[in-house]
Design brief:
This protein is α+β, with helices and mostly antiparallel strands and about 290 residues long. It is about 25% helix and about 25% strand. Helix 2 packs parallel to helix 3.
């Protein structure tokens, strides 16, 4: 908690575009995220929520156009929140460090039901935003049958795991072998991130990074890499991306080859994601604990 408070105290939001507090839950959350990112908090992934999209009834008003009503209001909050967030990141000078993505547990069907809503569907749009995002629409417009019924679905074009693995590979620099191990198989690549951002990211890995023994019996392992000198973080994540241990947090190292013994005692046997960060450089390895 003190670490989060310290990060929040190091930065102040600058964008005037945020709605009044309490009027847009998503914007309120994104405002905090922008402050923490600018304040230097080392968290890599933030999750914000905007509920209410399970619109089985009254998705649009009974009379009037479909550009108004409950669903349109929700989309307006989504747009306003993201717009203010991106403006804030730009003013804070950290826009190139953040990629945002929307996701939902389900989509909607093609045709409205008798309650002027839509039921759960097989596919839905997914938005990725940020200054380093490839600004294109992936995939063609869906072809909707003229006689679609309430049980018909928009056909899925991309498995959501293709998007996840593509972003993990390009933005978080997770090796393909690690992604295959985490997801159980490989998925088609989608060019979500700008090529220029990929070139910049691939230019700054940690040199000669390895972990041994790997697999580890769970007692101790050693991280080996070439340091340029400066504060280092070594973090272990579980198979679903949750941080389980921060084994080194900000220790300053000298330049040259480093061999850091790391205590793994207490970790449940399984596959872990082992990440070392130093300045703008970052590398990851899959670590198996037996």
């Amino acid at each position: 908690t003190s670490t989060i408070q310290a990060a929040a105290g190091r930065a102040k939001n600058l964008s005037p575009l945020y709605p009044t507090a309490g009027q847009n839950a998503l914007a309120d959350q994104l405002k905090i995220v922008a402050q923490l990112v600018a304040g230097g908090l080392s968290t890599r992934i933030y999750v914000c929520q905007l509920g209410g999209f399970d619109t089985h009834t009254l998705q649009v008003p009974a009379t009037g156009g479909n550009a108004t009503g409950y669903h349109a209001t929700l989309l307006g909050k989504l747009a306003d929140g993201i717009n203010a967030f991106q403006d804030d990141l730009r003013l804070l000078g950290v826009q190139d460090r953040v990629v945002g993505m929307t996701f939902s547990e389900f989509g909607r069907r093609i045709k409205s039901n008798s309650g002027i809503g839509t039921d759960h569907g097989a596919a839905s749009p997914l938005l990725v935003f940020g200054s380093k995002v490839n600004p294109i629409v992936h995939g063609p417009n869906p072809q909707l049958p003229a006689n679609a019924g309430v049980n018909d679905n928009v056909a899925m074009q991309f498995d959501f795991r293709s998007i996840y693995t593509s972003i993990l590979k390009d933005w978080f620099q997770v090796p393909p072998a690690t992604l295959t191990a985490l997801f159980g198989q490989s998925f088609p690549y989608v060019p979500v991130i700008r090529p220029s951002a990929l070139a910049a990211a691939s230019a700054v890995p940690l040199a000669d990074f390895s972990v041994y023994p790997n697999p580890s019996a769970g007692g101790q392992t050693t991280a080996v890499f070439t340091s340029e000198g400066g504060p280092v973080q070594i973090i272990i994540y579980d198979g679903v991306g949750r941080e389980v241990r921060r084994v080194v947090d900000g220790r300053t190292l000298g330049a040259g080859v480093q061999q850091l013994p790391l205590d793994l005692s207490g970790l449940t046997p399984g596959a872990y994601h082992f990440t070392v960060r130093e300045g703008g450089r970052s590398s990851s390895r899959l670590l198996a604990v037996e």
